[in-house]
Amino acid sequence: MSTTLPEENTLSHEDTSSNLESSQNLESSSPPASADAHQGTVHIHQEEASSSRTTSLTASLKSYLFENTSNKNVRDCRYIYRPLHALDTFNTKPCHNSFLCVSCSKRELRPWRIRLQRVAQIVESASFVTLSVPTDSDLDTAWRNLELVWSKLSKSSSFSRQKKSHGLLHNVRAAEVTYNESTGQWHPHLHIFLLFSTDDQDATHVSEDLLRRWKIAAEAIGVPVSSSSQHWKLVPYEDRYDTAGYLVKQGPWPTSIKAGTLLVGDILRQAATGSLEHKKLWTEYERAAFGRTAVRGSQGFDTWADSIASELVLAA
Q1: Which residue segment(s) compose the domain that 287 sits in?
Q2: The whole model's pTM is what?
Q3: Which residues of 89-123 are buried (b: 16+ CB within 10 A; e: fewer)?
Q4: CA 123 to mean position of chain CA atoms
Q5: pLDDT tens, 157-194?
Q6: How confident is the model over 79-134, as pLDDT tens digits?
Q7: Considering the domain boundaries, does residue 253 fall inside one?
Q8: What value, to the nearest 5°, has the Cα angle with vertex 291 and ends 289 and 297?
């Protein structure tokens, strides 16, 4: 579903024409290069070209954000590209915006990904849940409904009892937003990684019950949801590392591989090329994301995850 681009870098291309004659003389007295050596050279050139394209794309996206964002913190971020005439306004503080900033999103989400990937591999069982609400309204309203339903569900005493009786240790949830080009509708949804100290039977029970409770909580606040739009699956041990990485992928970098579905990374790229339609979509997304948090853990998750990390270091 997503691609993770390499860290920003700057390539240096040196003029090698002055060494041409000596290299030709060397080649005339040397055996022909092997096929393996030739393939290795091609591979190096391909990597350099890829890095160069990434650097160019990064600069383009940063330039677009600087010139068009309505979010002052993002515009003034120390990592965002700024034209020469704005150097005197340079702000040394990062914006820490995981939804909008092409630089800070990677820096902010990386610790979450590493921490979740680590603990996901030491629990007894795990499940992955996707929850959503109807999107027949504007993005901000649909997103707010999503948060309201989760708040009502997670604060219920019955859900707390379920966690204790079925070994649910913690959960990490991430908000993701996609756009359907066919219907012209946004699709904000939650991905939730549930971590258990017990077996798959308990994980199955809690995950199925979570979907049922989601529907009840949504209807209680006047947001009817479809059962067919909610999903869950058990995550086997060998898939937990990649699943954790998938969960913590939000931000303006990932792009979609599904035809007709846009991630915000697709929207930003098209907006940066001058597409008026995608500029409007990006502006709506930017406004809706204001003040929201990309990734959250259940109460005590940070302390628990850090203690796990300390134990692993001591055991090594």
Answers
A1: 104-315
A2: 0.79
A3: eeeeebbebbbbbbbbbbebbeebbebbbebbeeb
A4: 23
A5: 877 777 778 999 999 999 999 999 999 999 999 999 99
A6: 886 665 566 656 568 999 999 999 999 999 999 999 999 999 999 999 999 999 98
A7: yes
A8: 90
Tokens 């898939």 identify what position? 239
pLDDT at 4: 38
The reported pLDDT for the residue numbered 246 is: 94
Euclidean distance between CA atoms 86 and 217, whole angstroms:
49
What is the rounded end-to-end Cα distance, in angstroms, of the chain?
Answer: 34
Token pair listed for 182: 């066919």
Q: Token digits for 259?
A: 């035809």
Q: In this model, does residue 30 exceed pLDDT 50? A: no
- One-letter amino acid at 41 equals T
Q: How many residues does the chain have?
A: 316
**The two three-digit tokens of residue 47, written as one number:** 């990597």
Per-chain mean pLDDT for the chain:
82
Q: Which of 65, 89, 113 lies at the terminal end of a domain, its last residue?
A: 89
CA distances from 173 to 127, 154, 278 (A): 12, 12, 27
Q: Which two tokens stand for residue 274?
A: 């001058």
Q: What percent of the chain has pLDDT over 90?
A: 60
**Do the bridges between strand 295-297 and strand 261-263 make them parallel or antiparallel, or are there none, so unpaired?**
unpaired
Strands 125-132, 168-180: pairing kind = unpaired
CA 232 to chain CA centroid, Å, is 19
For residue 286, what are its two tokens?
């930017």
CA-wise closest residue to 206 among 170, 177, 236? 170
CA separation for the pair 104, 316 (Å, rounded): 32
CATH number (domain holding residue 222)? 3.30.70.1130
In 3-state terms the chain splits into helix, strand, coil percentages (rounded to 5) of 55, 15, 30
Q: Is residue 179 part of a domain?
A: yes
Structure tokens at 313: 């270091």
pLDDT band, very low/low/confident/very high, at 202 (cuts 50, 70, 90): very high
Q: Does position 19 have pLDDT exceeding 70, yes or no?
A: no
Percent of the chain with pLDDT over 70: 78
